[in-house]
Design goal:
The complex is a heterodimer of chains A (749) and B (92). Chain A is an all-alpha fold. Helix content of chain A is 59%, strand content 3%. Chain A has helices at residues 3-14, 39-47, 62-66, 86-92, 102-120, 138-143, 150-176, 202-224, 233-256, 264-279, 323-340, 349-361, 368-378, 390-402, 406-409, 418-421, 426-450, 455-487, 495-517, 526-561, 568-611, 625-633, 648-659, 663-685, 698-724; strands spanning 34-37, 54-56, 69-70, 379-380, 383-384, 733-736, 745-748. In chain A, the strands form 2 sheets. Chain A has a two-stranded antiparallel ribbon. The longest helix of chain A is centred in the last third of the chain and has 44 residues, at 568-611. Chain A is globular and about 90 Å long. Chain B has 1 helix and 5 strands, in the order αβββββ. A 5-stranded antiparallel sheet of chain B has the order 4-3-2-1-5, with no helix packed on it. In chain B, a hairpin with a 2-residue loop joins β3 (47-56) and β4 (59-68). The longest helix of chain B is centred in the N-terminal third of the chain and has 8 residues, at 11-18. The chains are: A mainly alpha (749), B mainly beta (92). Chains A and B meet through α1, β1, α2, β2 and β3 of A and α1, β1, β2, β3 and β4 of B. Chain B: InterPro entries: LSM_dom_sf, LSMD1_Sm, Sm, Sm_dom_euk/arc, snRNP_SmB/NAA38-like.
């Protein structure tokens, strides 16, 4: 044998062909790499690093790095052996069948509510509801047979409450799984492979609760007569109240989950029950008076349970809100549910839209569950509120705003003119109109659904749908001209395109104003933004004027042709025209108030930014003004109307020209504009809720208008100060959104 | 506008960069060993490994993307590909 073969044989014998993956880099394993110790080298190399420098694979980004588990961090590193603290020991050895004192049960009930509220506000189940040890022993808990003793009654109450809580979580989970809100951003639906015990039906749990309530009631009665002395009434009553509230909550969620909004009134009644219970404060046995009065039960909750549950991303740090805060959140959620449960009773579609918009704007912003629920109620089973056709919905919406002749949208309701009925174009026009309505229906429903997203997401989505409405407007113009060909009106109507245009303008206005509320703009951009806002607002004014004109023309035609007629239908027709005209009027006043506010604040900004230099303006660091301008106008640039669109140069020139006036004149201008705003606001405040279509949101609407009024006052005071005292022109100013989320007050510090 | 130019690599940094995307074996203070693809490190020697396996004595399990803080490092090794001693001798 030559030496080569020997070496070969030796080499082959040395090969370890056992596939043993558990040998960590055994250097005899040919398949595994040899390892080279670079510990010292790493020290040297990293010394060469600059502060903050790192080396990484080019494809590896910050976003990827965020999901890395940090080793030796007890919250994330599940392989770490940690010192078991007292709570861990207690949690592991916790006996779920152990009898509880009433005040211990009280603590558990309140703690569970905190966990639920934390979950609804977006934290994961593993860090909230699942930290309750009882949740992992539901079967044992449920199958316990409790004796007819006072202790047994407390155990039954515990069982009923925990199971009631599970069912409530299940209903909430079912709603959130419909995916109306953004995963991770708003809410996490991760169940970690654990069940929510669907096998315990609602009726089973209701029975448990009822039984427990009866037993508690019995204990209370017997304590009052002196028969039962083990548990005093002042410890039992708070438990009873909470269990009763839990029952109402479960019923409410159950009723609200029925399709076609059939049981909404029942749901509303249940949620109102809860509010009644929470509102009682004087009674020392009420829920509100006994918050936080429980005794801690060690081991009943284990915050470290998330270490045992598999998750894709490391858990975010979480502190549970206090008992008081949780009850506040709960009350707010229930108040929202009461409001939402009345939503399918709406006097008009515009009123309904106003309700949705006020829901979207109300602070504190709504929780993901309410938002999702409102969304589901509005549109499910391909129908509005589960019952109405979307085409009918959009037809009514168009009718409410631009009031085309009824025979166009509702051919069955009134006889069309003879020349229309005889026209060869009739069928084709009807077909085109039906197609347009089909096309427009879902974008309109989406406009409602957008209001159910979180505030930032609302703005983002609106930016995206603007182009859709631009296209709809174009299609609407085609429909308008077809109708004109058919009907040969004396004037060229633009019913459908005006409707689409007005909604598009509304959205544009909202996008710009939301930029203030969401604190997107830096103060050096304000003047530019206000100039663009004025463009949009003035386009809206022209659109409203045009619609008013058209409706008035139509109304006059009807009046002419039926001068002496006491025909009921004609009178109804005229009344409906007036109804729409009144609404248009309210919109015109609101628009006027906005235009004047924007102009007034713009002029004030010119003074404090360019003349007296009282406003500290941030210098652009990462971009320059033209780039920033293009960025801000990005959602609007592709739109075909309104035109002309401003360029950076035209805006800059306008600001320069305006700022060249002297300070006194600018202040006078600001004063005049704001004064006109105030007059429009006063008129608005005196309008009826029918005229402003704010029947479903009267309070928030009033609050908003009052906010504008207060903003006017605050700015007026500043103008006066700047006018009267030269000294005031040397102190710095702040731009604060004190009374209104999108209209600021410029205040002297 | 203020832009920072990336610093020029020293020979050490260049060599360390060459270890990126290769396997590393890291022993930490509590005795566990992590083997994974070396992705990233910084001045504090915090190291990110991908597709990582954790070994504790004889047990091992997959942990995925991990970040090992520099302060817990005991030993850091990289897969040695230019070592010919364990190679396959073709010519005697």
């Amino acid at each position: 044998m030559d030496s080569m073969t020997d070496s070969l044989r030796e080499a082959i014998s040395n090969m370890d062909i056992t596939n043993d993956p558990s040998r960590p880099g055994n250097s005899h394993n040919f398949l595994a790499p040899a390892w080279k110790d670079i510990t010292k080298f790493l020290d040297d190399a990293t010394d060469d690093f600059q502060v903050g420098q790192l080396i990484h694979l080019q494809s590896f980004t910050l976003f990827d790095a965020m999901s890395a588990i940090e080793i030796m961090d007890p919250k994330m590193d599940t392989g770490m052996l940690i010192e078991e603290d007292d709570n861990d020991k207690a949690a592991q050895s916790f006996n779920v069948s152990r009898t509880l004192e009433p005040r211990e049960l009280l603590w558990i009930m309140d703690r569970l509510l905190s966990c639920e509220m934390a979950w609804v506000s977006g934290h994961s189940l593993a860090q909230t509801v699942y930290t309750c040890t009882y949740f992992h022993y539901i079967r044992e808990l449920a199958s316990e047979q409790c004796e007819k003793t006072p202790e047994g009654a407390i155990q039954n109450a515990l069982k009923a409450y925990v199971l009631g809580c599970v069912k409530c979580c299940q209903h909430i989970f079912n709603e959130m799984s419909v995916c109306n809100v953004y995963e991770e951003e708003d809410f996490t639906t991760n169940l970690f492979g654990l069940s929510l015990y669907e096998q315990y039906t609602d009726s089973m749990v209701m029975n448990m609760i009822d039984t427990a309530l009866l037993e508690l009631r019995d204990l209370v009665d017997r304590a009052n007569t002196g028969e039962q002395t083990q548990f005093p009434v002042d410890e039992l009553a708070p438990l009873y109240n909470r269990l009763f509230m839990r029952k109402s909550y479960l019923f409410g969620l159950l009723y609200a989950s029925h399709a076609q909004c059939t049981y909404l009134p029942h749901a509303k009644a249940e949620f109102e029950n809860i509010l009644q219970l929470l509102n009682v404060k004087e009674d020392c046995l009420s829920i509100s008076a006994t918050i936080g009065k429980g005794i801690v039960v060690e081991g009943a909750f284990d915050p470290n349970i998330n270490r045992k549950l598999t998750a894709q991303a490391p858990p975010r740090p979480i502190t549970l809100p206090s008992d008081e805060e949780s009850y506040t959140h709960f009350r707010e959620l229930v108040e929202r549910m009461v409001s939402i449960c009345g939503v399918n009773q709406y006097p008009s579609i515009i009123s309904l839209l106003n309700y949705f918009k006020s829901f979207a704007a109300k602070q504190p912003y709504a929780d993901p569950f309410s938002r999702s629920k409102l969304n589901t109620l509005l549109y499910h089973d391909l129908r509005v509120f589960g019952t109405e056709s979307v085409v009918n919905f959009v037809s009514l919406a168009i009718d409410e705003l631009v009031r085309p002749p009824r025979w166009i949208l509702f051919p069955g309701s009134i006889r069309a003119p003879d020349h229309v009925l005889a026209s060869p174009l009739l069928e084709e026009t009807q077909k085109a109109l039906a197609e347009f309505l089909e096309r427009a229906a879902l974008p309109l429903v989406d406009y409602f659904k957008i209001q159910c997203h979180n505030r930032s997401r609302q703005r983002r989505i609106l930016c995206k749908v603007l182009q859709e409405w631009d296209a709809l407007q174009d299609e609407a113009e085609v429909i308008d001209s077809k109708i004109q060909d058919l009907a040969e009106f004396g004037f060229s109507p633009s019913y459908f395109s005006s409707w689409a245009y007005l909604i598009k303008l509304e959205m544009m206005e909202t996008v710009v104003l939301l930029g203030f509320e969401l604190e997107l703009y830096s103060n050096n951009e304000y003047t530019m933004i206000y100039l663009y806002l004025l463009d949009v607002l003035k386009a809206r004014k022209r659109a409203l004027d045009h619609i008013e004109e058209q409706i008035t023309l139509q109304k006059n035609e009807v009046l002419q042709t039926s001068k002496k007629s006491k025909d009921r239908y004609i009178q109804q027709d005229v009344a409906s025209f007036n109804h729409v005209l009144q609404y248009i009027q309210s919109q015109k006043y609101y628009n006027e108030a906005q235009i004047r506010m924007a102009s007034g604040i713009y002029n004030m900004l010119l003074v404090v930014q360019y003349k007296t230099k009282q406003l500290d303006v941030l210098k652009p660091r990462y971009d320059d003004p033209p780039t920033r301008f293009r960025q801000r106008l990005k959602p609007f640039l592709p739109l075909s109307t309104p035109r002309p669109q401003p360029t950076f140069e035209s805006i800059e020139k306008t600001i320069d020209t305006n700022a060249s006036l002297d300070t006194e004149n600018l202040l006078k201008l600001a004063d005049a504009h704001l004064g006109a705003a105030k007059e429009a606001i006063e008129i608005l405040l005196n309008m009826s809720q029918e005229q402003t279509r704010s029947e479903m949101c009267r309070e928030p609407y009033n609050k908003e208008i009052m906010g504008m009024k207060r903003t006017y006052l605050g700015n007026k005071i500043t103008i006066m100060k700047l006018f009267t005292d030269e000294k005031n022109r040397s102190s710095k100013v702040n731009v604060i959104f004190r009374y209104h989320p999108s209209w600021p007050v410029i205040e002297i510090k | 506008m203020n832009t920072t130019t990336p610093p020029v690599d020293t020979p050490n940094i260049k060599k360390l960069r060459s270890y990126l995307n290769f396997k590393a074996r890291i022993t930490i203070t509590d005795g566990r060993i992590f083997i994974g693809t070396f992705i990233c490190t910084d001045k504090q020697k915090n190291i990110i490994l991908a597709q990582t396996k954790e070994f504790r004595g004889d047990e091992h399990r997959m942990v995925g993307l991990v970040m090992i803080p520099g302060k817990h490092l005991v030993k850091v090794e990289t897969e040695d590909l230019d070592d010919d001693d364990n190679g396959f001798p073709i010519y005697g």
